[in-house]
Amino acid sequence: MKISEKLWLGRLATPLPDRRRPVYNWFPMKEAFSRDLVFLVAETWGLGDEDMVLDPFCGTGTTPLACKELGLNCVGFDAHPAALFASRVKLRDYDVAKLRESVENFLREDLEAREVDAPSFVTRAFSKSVLEEIVAARQRLSEIEDCAVKEFMLMGLSAAAMKCSWAHKDGAAIKVMKRPVPPLGKELGFQLRRMCNEVEAFKNKGSAIRVDQGDARKMNLENGKINAVITSPPYLGKKEYVHAQRLEQWVIGLEVPNELGLIGSVNEENDYSEVAEFVEGKPQDSKAYFKGMLSAIREIHRVCSDGANVCMVVSDGCTQDGPVDACITLSEIAEKVGFRAKSLIVVNKRHCTTPARKKVGIAREGLLFWTK
Question: Which of 317, 296, 318, 276 is nearest to 370 (CA)?
Fold first, then answer.
């Protein structure tokens, strides 16, 4: 496998280029990559309208949404309820006139304060008045019969609520920084109208796009139907994404994902014999990750056609004892499954540190390219 370094590509492996990009920025997740990366990979591979693209860890839908712009067919799966909700809302084809009418009808009525029953992490993040308005808005939205309109406005409520919160996210931790915030009603009106404008302006070339609730280790797809994979699995040792959106989940009314069912979860029944050759000398808690990824990569291989290409954004793990290789290890696992690992392009580097902030090595973030 060829290994090279192109740090100028590093920004594309983050959501920063999409921070102000319409529709893409409706539900930001720190762990996402950018639409520009999907465009670059699709152009490099020469993907066309007869190809089917897969993202088995689709998150909030960057790959499917980019494919919608490009006119490429795409299917995505994710196990995280908030991410899946965001993907579906972003990817729907809306009747814009009906959407605008529903939004204006909703905004004409003032929000009446309602009694709040919320967990402590929520009550710390919002003022009492904003919380009461959130609950009132959510109650009124629950009465809307059209699911597409309801979920669109719940997405807007989530974004508006976060702009009216005292929350500052630091990984999975939510820090409270009290400050003046705008009225929720005004912010919600601005957010919903802006979203309507963005839906109307979004370029859609009419391809077949769907996202489903699902585990990358067992996808509801036929053998050999996929021509390209553009994805980013959970990073080794990084579980912040499980709880980082818990405020938005509460606002929308979604369940918290079950950590035990996600890749990297540890239980007493885990048997690591299949990955023994890949995890020798690695920390104990990394073994479950590589076992889960072996199952996912095996499933990706099953659904790929001969000649299919894979681009996977991954990162080495960090411990207080130093970095844990994942980029090379995942490519070795891919070779065992039946892929040909062609290249690793290192796009970012970061220092691993001890709790005392002593630097103990460098972890690489990279693009893995495989072919079947």
Answer: 296
pLDDT by 10s per residue, the chain, length 372: 999 999 999 999 999 999 999 999 999 888 899 999 999 999 999 999 999 999 999 999 999 999 999 999 999 999 989 999 999 999 999 999 999 999 999 999 887 777 788 898 999 999 998 999 999 999 999 999 999 999 999 999 999 999 999 988 776 677 888 889 988 999 999 999 999 999 999 988 889 999 999 999 999 999 999 999 999 999 988 776 677 888 999 999 998 777 666 776 766 567 788 888 988 888 877 888 999 999 999 999 999 999 999 999 999 998 888 899 999 999 999 999 999 999 999 999 999 888 878 888 899 999 999 999
Pair 61, 91: CB distance under 8 Å: yes
d(CA 357, CA 44) in angstroms, rounded, equals 40
CB 330 within 8 A of CB 369: no
Q: Quick one: CA dihedral 302, 304, 305, 311, positive or negative?
A: negative
Burial class (CB within 10 angstroms; exposed 0-12, middle 13-18, buried 19+) of 175: exposed
157 closest CA partner among 173, 140, 143: 140
Spatial separation of the C-alpha atoms in residues 42 and 23, rounded to whole Å: 20
Question: Which two three-digit tokens encode residue 84?
Answer: 């899946």
Tell me the β-bridge partners of 170: 173
Backbone torsions φ then ψ of 274, nearest 5 degrees: -65, -25
Distance CA 118, CA 124 (A): 10
Give pTM, 2 decimals: 0.94
| Rg of the chain (C-alpha set) | 21
**Helix %, strand %, coil % for the chain, to 5?**
45, 20, 35
Tell me the three state secondary structure of residue 136: helix
